[in-house]
Amino acid sequence: IVNSLSPQEIHAQMMNPQSTFWKEMVDYLESVHQGEFIDKTMTEVQNDVAYAASDPDYKDPTQTLPEAPPYPCNHQPDVKCHNCTKCDTWWQSFKNNVNDLLYRSNIHSCGDHCTVKGECKAKFPRPYKTTVDEKVGYIILKKLETRLNTFTTTLTYLLRSNPDVTSLLSGTALKSVAAYVTDYITETPLKTYTIFQTICDVFNCQTTMIGGTLRDQEKARKLPTQIVNSLSVRMEMGAPMAAAYLLGNPDHYTSHRFRTVYWKSYSSEVLKDWDSTDLDQLAENDNPNPKDQVVVKRSREGYTAYTPIMDYIYRPKPFKDVCLYDWIHLSRKKLLPNIASNSDASQTGTAVEAQEDSRAKSLIHKT
């Protein structure tokens, strides 16, 4: 990068707290995430939350959805403008919601879960002001609330939970995050003995419920539920992912669904019907040794060769004049249910079902 500083020059600049580079770097890092409440101290936020919770109409922000902001005006703020007033009200609500969420979810309390030899593994309490390690130049960002995790206000407002936002200021931190993410992605299923141990633990913990007065139907419902929950915790599987699988939803989302087109095989098949030498030469240059993959299927009549391009060639008569792009885009292939014949035998076939939408209907009318 032209005119960029070398790592050694950056290190030298960071070792000088009086340099402009040091001040601008610290200002930038402090602007992208923070470790204190918005314009208030913890005591003030605690009082505000207690007062708001006394209202019968109060709703816990962790159990509500974020409210979208109004569109900003194109002019300078005006107290007489109705939309400007709405924007000011929304921003005040935004600050109150973020402070409420931070007070409920981002405050760290030391205990047996994090204390080792009298010290907190999470390095709490954090330093009150930004400092730089004099030996290596490492930046330790300030936290005006020493027990509060660092965060970004926008993420906290949108996620309604405890997003811990940390600036990765060293190669070690980057490697740690990469290892952490990779460990989750490549996590292997539970071992068999772990599954049985989990089930055994649930049975041992629920002996009172099993021998209690609940109906057998209620016991049969509660016990598997607790086993599944325990296994989900052991697998470190989140509730959204578990719900997605139970509802039959994919584990990823896209705005479009793309269809696979076997264009090369189809074009080679089309060129077979042309006698032109030029086209034959073109086909040879494009694919000197065309080898279509053929799947052999077994049916009542015997064995049949099948290739994906058959789905493009053989169509119902109403769709014979539909162009290939529309046919691939609008059609869906699915298995037919078992159909009983006169000899009580069943056969399975495939059919193409056109989408029942206006575009498909218009194509039918055109043909």
Cross-sheet strand order for the largest sheet: 1-2
Mean model confidence by pLDDT: 78
Largest sheet: 2 strands, antiparallel
Share of helix among residues? 40-55%
Distance, first to last CA: 59 Å
- Strands, total number: 10
Total number of helices? 15
Overall domain count: 4
Give the overall silhouette: extended
Element-by-element helix/strand order: HHHHEEEEHHHHHHHHEEHHEEEEH
Percent of residues in β-strands: 5-15%
Structural class: mainly alpha
Cα gyration radius (Å):
32 Å
Task: Describe this entry's structure for a reader.
With 367 residues, the protein is mostly helical. It folds into 4 domains: 33-168, no CATH class; 192-246, no CATH class; 257-306, no CATH class; 315-367, no CATH class. The protein is built from 15 helices and 10 strands. The protein has helices at 7-14, 20-32, 42-53, 82-105, 153-159, 171-185, 192-205, 207-210, 216-234, 239-246, 263-271, 277-286, 310-313, 324-330, 358-366; strands at residues 115-116, 119-120, 131-132, 139-140, 295-299, 302-306, 331-335, 339-340, 346-347, 350-354. β3 and β4 (139-140) form a beta hairpin. It starts with 6 loop residues before the first helix and ends with a helix. Mean pLDDT is 78; it is low at 340-367.
